[in-house]
From TrEMBL:
Organism for this UniProt entry: Marinobacter salinus
General function of this protein: Catalyzes the reversible adenylation of nicotinate mononucleotide (NaMN) to nicotinic acid adenine dinucleotide (NaAD).
Pathway membership: Cofactor biosynthesis; NAD(+) biosynthesis; deamido-NAD(+) from nicotinate D-ribonucleotide: step 1/1
This enzyme's EC code(s): 2.7.7.18
Every Cytidyltransferase-like domain range: 4-183
Any single biological process term in GO: NAD+ biosynthetic process
Protein name (Swiss-Prot/TrEMBL): Probable nicotinate-nucleotide adenylyltransferase
NCBIfam families in the record: cyt_tran_rel, nicotinate (nicotinamide) nucleotide adenylyltransferase, PRK00071.1-1, PRK00071.1-3
Native organism taxonomy: Bacteria, Pseudomonadati, Pseudomonadota, Gammaproteobacteria, Pseudomonadales
Swiss-Prot/TrEMBL catalytic activity: nicotinate beta-D-ribonucleotide + ATP + H(+) = deamido-NAD(+) + diphosphate
MF annotations from Gene Ontology: ATP binding; nicotinate-nucleotide adenylyltransferase activity
SUPFAM superfamilies: Nucleotidylyl transferase (SSF52374)
Family classification: Belongs to the NadD family.
Superkingdom of origin organism: Bacteria
Length: 216
């Protein structure tokens, strides 16, 4: 079973890393692939470049064999659509290998606005991780899909290559990349919210307005 967990990772933090390990444990897989996405240029102004986000991810997972990085969306020119990425992965994995995409409830709530969303269940399973915030609208497409395609346990995902939706409710750390960027810009330390290696590199490169000579 191949599991991908996408995000902007601007920067990667312990909330992401902890969730990726929880997913790996709960689905019983050896590895989860973290897949950083392309950020449109207008967002890049305040955040880090693709190369910088990738470098921070590499440092964050350096000692963790359960996590790996799939940088295909960064190396592709321009925006990446999830359906294209899943199609490419499906071609590589062949028709029978289960492929799983992990998304938060916040992202899944807008699923029917994703490009070619109708194709996605034919390419992969979806694991929806419950995040605090509004519930799915009961009369919306995402809630209907969830009801129609619901898997009751991770073993069901192993029995077919795609098409099921599994809800997981793992413990989540209350950390956001937005909060970390704001903290650094204010001259406050994000220590213990991100791995030390990540914070060192952020300071070394002066990312997010960090002062290279400031306090650890
Ligand atoms: P931002 O604050 O810039 O929006 P973020 O911290 O929410 O960033 P993203 O990189 O956008 O992180 O998120 C990637 C994925 O990780 C999304 O599916 C999101 O729901 C999830 N995620 C983000 N923060 C956490 C957290 N603290 N715990 C678990 N999952 C998280």
């Amino acid at each position: 079973m191949h599991v991908i967990y996408g995000g902007t990772f601007d920067p990667v933090h312990h909330g992401h890393l902890r969730l990726a390990l929880e997913i790996s444990d709960r689905l019983g897989v050896d590895q989860v692939s973290l897949m950083p996405c392309h950020i449109p240029p207008h967002r890049g102004d305040t955040g880090a470049s693709s190369g910088q986000r990738l470098r921070l991810l590499e440092l964050a997972i350096a000692d963790e064999p359960q996590l790996r990085i799939d940088d295909r969306e960064l190396t592709r020119a321009g925006a990446s659509y999830t359906a294209d990425t899943l199609r490419q992965l499906r071609n590589e994995l062949g028709p029978d290998e289960p492929l799983v995409m992990v998304v938060g409830t916040d992202a899944f709530a807008g699923f029917d606005r994703w490009r070619e969303w109708q194709q996605i269940p034919d390419l992969a399973h979806i694991v929806v991780v419950r995040r605090p915030g509004p519930e799915l609208a009961s009369d919306g497409v995402p809630a209907r899909l969830l009801a129609e395609r619901s898997a009751h346990d991770p073993d069901a995902l192993r029995a077919q290559p795609c098409g099921l939706i599994l809800e997981l409710d793992p413990p989540l750390l209350d950390i956001s990349a937005t909060g970390i960027r704001g903290r650094i810009a204010d001259g406050r330390s994000p220590r213990y919210l991100v791995p030390d290696s990540v914070w060192l590199e952020i300071r070394r490169q002066g990312l997010y307005g960090a002062c290279p000579a400031g306090n650890f």
